[in-house]
Amino acid sequence: MAANQQSREPANRDGGNAHPDLDLARIRRLIDELDAEVANAPADADGVQDLKDEIATLRAVLDAPKQKSGWIADGLHTIGVQLEQTAKSVRGEVMRESVFVAEIGRILGL
What we know:
Layout: H1 2-8, H2 24-38, H3 48-63, H4 69-89, H5 97-108
């Protein structure tokens, strides 16, 4: 009985399946769109390279043979935070940052 109960509990911070209902296709579309938007931002603006790196990291997690939804959720959260910080320095360049932040929130159930 304990083993059964344990398997139903959300995974801890080891990258397990804390969010098993994540829509990977939706996340991939969001990341593709965000990547295209960030490509328009000045490369030397504060935070742009960090945001690009976070997008690349999340892509690698999504492309891994065994996806860990906890890692995907953490990556989305990090991208949302980084996007909000970066948008302040490139205001007018990445016009739709609030759209992406809102979509990340919906995906994560926030």
